[in-house]
Amino acid sequence: MMDALLKIARKAGEFFETSRMTDVTHKEGHGNYVTNIDCQVQAYLEEQLPRLLPGSRFIGEEKENQALTDAPTWIVDPLDGTMNMIHDYRMSAVSIALCENRKPVAGVIWQPFSREMFCAEAGKGAWLNGEAIHVSERAFPEALAAVGTAPYYEELEPATLKMAGAFLRACSDFRRSGSAALDLAYLACGRHEIYCELRIKPWDYAAGSLLVQEAGGLICMPLNGGPMDYSLSTAVLAATPKCMPEALKIVSAVLPQA
Ligand code: LIP
C-alpha cells in the first residue's frame, strides 16, 4: 500500500504548482486562511485514500470531521503551510497519516517544491526519498529548535515568544518554517533537534509524529501528559533523545501561561 500512497501524495502535490490561487478565504483566528488549492488537494485525497483502504474514514483540515475512532482513519492536511503558499514561500507539504486503533501506522509528507518525500511505517523505520533517516546526535547546546508560533491563538503569543527566546539562548538558535509537518519531518532526518508548538491540530502533526518516532526521536503532549492522543488540538513537543530533557524544561516553564 505504501507505494500507492506515495503516488497519491505526489499527484496531490501537483496541485501546488499547477493550480492558480483564485480564492483566499479567512478562517477563524489571526493569520488563518484556506485557499482553493487546499480544497482541491483535499477533494482529491478524500476521493483517492478511502479507495486505497475500503471502509476507512477520512479526517481533513478543510471539512467538518467525525471523532477519531479505532477504525482505520486517514488524518490529512492537504496543504500544510497555507500562509507560506499564499506568499509563494515554497515551504508547504501534503501530510497524510493512516491511523488504526487511534495511532498512526503509516505517514507520508510530500514537499513538492524541494521534491522531498518523507515516509514511515510503524515498526519499519522512516525514509527520505527512499533513504533511511535518523534523528541527529547533536548535544543540546548545539541544537536547532523549530518553534511553531500558533498564530491563530493570540493568547499564546507571550508564552510562545518566551519559549523561542529560551531556545535562542540555550541552543544554537530557533527556526520558524510555517509548516509543522515539515518541522517534524526535518527533525526526523536530523536537520534540527527540537520542535514545539503550543497548540497544533492533529492533521498538522499526525504523520510527522510517526516519522519522528520511527527515526529514533521522541514526541509528547506536555500540557496533557500521558501518551499521544491524536484527537487533540494541543501543545506538541518533539526532540531527539539527547535534547528532550532540556527541551521539556524550557517548554514546561512557559506552559502555565499557555
Ligand atoms: C500550519 C502549521 C503551522 C502553524 C500554523 C498552521 P496550516 O498549518 O503547519 O506550524 O503554526 O498555525 O496551523 O494551517 O498551514 O495547514
Structural summary, described in words:
The chain has 258 residues and is an alpha+beta fold. The chain folds into two domains: 131 residues, 2-Layer Sandwich (Fructose-1,6-Bisphosphatase, Chain A, domain 1), CATH 3.30.540; 118 residues, D-Maltodextrin-Binding Protein, domain 2 (3-Layer(aba) Sandwich). Helix content is 33%, strand content 28%. The protein is built from seven helices and 14 strands. The strands form three sheets. A seven-stranded mixed sheet has the order 3-4-5-6-7-8-9, with helices on both faces. A five-stranded mixed sheet has the order 11-10-12-14-13, with helices on both faces. Strand 7 and strand 8 form a beta hairpin. The longest helix is centred in the N-terminal third of the chain and has 17 residues. The radius of gyration is 17 Å and the shape is globular. The mean pLDDT is 96. The site of L-MYO-inositol-1-phosphate has 15 residues, from strand 4.
